[in-house]
Every structure is written in structure tokens, then in C-alpha cells.
Amino acid sequence: MRGLILAAGRGSRLKDRTEDRPKGLVALNGHPLIAWQLHALRGAGIDDIALVGGYRSDSLKQFNLPIFENPRWAETNMVRSFMCAADWMTERPVIVSYSDIVYDASTVARLAADPAEIAISFDPDWLTLWSARFADPLSDAETFRLDGRDLVIDIGRKPKSLDEIRGQYMGLLKFTPTGWRTFAQILNALPTERCDKLDMTSTLRLLIEHGTAIKAVPAAGPWAEVDNEIDLALYAKADSPIKLPPGPV
């Protein structure tokens, strides 16, 4: 099993904190976000790890890991960054992680153990986190519906009610080489301009429309997303309602 961290973006909503570094190097409780991800991946037994860089990618060299470059990071979306690591995806199963989330090694292990060709982690208790982050949780949440086999049937749309949300997608995925080939085949058939602008949940929804099975695997431990300075302040509070997973020491 391999790990791939998508760290090409700046994260402009973090303002001056990302003036000289990509979003994944913003500190949470004294450690860069990527250090939290590496801690969880390695805690799950994954040591073969690479990064996808773009904005100020030289700063990622501190981790002494392979770096795939997305030179068009400013004009493309995360899916295009992901595709820059195509060669990494073809040989062994890979856990793919956003660079702005923190999660537990047990969640990685559970996702890695699932036999599906494509699987994603989700938080069934999402409302606790969203209620702490947003005055109106529905304002930022996305639809997430499953069938009786825990396969995703809808993801990434604007929900009209809580009934459309079984959980929230976390930004943590698993692909086998077969799953990756399915993913790449569908995307490579699209016009370049459309592929450049696709976000991940829209891409997952496109795969589902093409008949691709995507397994939903519930998180096994706490997790958090860092999207802006308000999130950082929330997690730093001594009385924060959000419990962070174990981090690097």
C-alpha cells in the first residue's frame, strides 16, 4: 500500500499564512498539516509515500519524499494535480489524501483494508464538526447518500435537507490499480478544459454516473478539516468541542 498527499494548492482563505508556503504546510498545534497526515499514514503501516506539489513546491522538499509537480496548479483543480501522479497509481493500491485534513491511523487502516477498487472515507457524525464550524451546517455541507451495500449513490451536491446527508466525505480515498485505470479512462475521455476544472466530488459523481462502484467506509477515529483561520482558532481552543486525532510529537 502506498500513500499520496495532494499538496499543490495555496489555500487562499488562510490569507497571509500561505504567502510563503502551500496550504499543507500551515501549522496546526505546532506541526505542519502534512506532518499530521504522514503520522497517520505511517501509523497505519504505509511508508511508501509521495506528494503532489505546485504552489511553492520547493518547500515540500523538507519531507524527503518523491514530489510530482503540477506546473498548472493555479489554473487547474485538485483532480488534475492527482493525475500528475499517474505513474504512482498503476503498480499498487494507494491511499490518497488531501493536504488540509487530519485523521487517525485507524481510519487509514480501515480504508486500506476494504477490498473495493475505489473507496472513500466518510464521517457519519459530521454534524458535530459542521455545527462547530458553521452557524448553518447546511450552508457548507454536501449531499452524501448510500445504497444498502454502502455504495455511494450521490455526493457533492447542495443539500436541501439533512435527510440527504448520511455523512460527509473527508478527502481520503483508496484506489487499487484497477480502480485508478477506471478513474483515468473516464477523465481522459473528457475535454481538457472540463477536466481542468473538475473538483473531486464532481469527479466521483461522474464515475458513479458511468456505473463505477465507489465504496463508503466510515471513519474509525476523529478527524478535522482546515479551510480557514476560523478553523485553526476552533481547534486551538482548550474547550473546543472537536477532538483532534493523535498528532506528531
Percent of residues in beta strands:
15-25%
Distance between the termini: 24 Å
Number of strands: 13
Helix content: 25-40%
Instruction: Report the average pLDDT across residues.
Output: 95
Number of domains: 1
The H-and-E topology, N to C, reads as: EEEHEEHHEEHEHEEEHHHEEH
Which CATH-level-2 architecture?
Alpha-Beta Complex
**Biggest sheet architecture:** 7 strands, mixed
CATH level-four homologous superfamily name = Spore Coat Polysaccharide Biosynthesis Protein SpsA, Chain A
Strand order of the largest sheet: 5-4-1-6-11-8-12
Radius of gyration from the alpha-carbon trace, in angstroms: 17 Å
CATH topology: Spore Coat Polysaccharide Biosynthesis Protein SpsA, Chain A
Description of the molecule:
Strands 5-4-1-6-11-8-12 form a seven-stranded mixed beta sheet. It has a two-stranded antiparallel ribbon with strand order 2-3. The chain has one domain: Alpha-Beta Complex (Spore Coat Polysaccharide Biosynthesis Protein SpsA, Chain A). With 249 residues, the chain is α/β, with parallel strands linked by helices. Helices cover 30% and strands 22% of the residues. The radius of gyration is 17 Å and the shape is globular. Strand 2 and strand 3 form a beta hairpin. The model has no long low-confidence stretch (mean pLDDT 95).
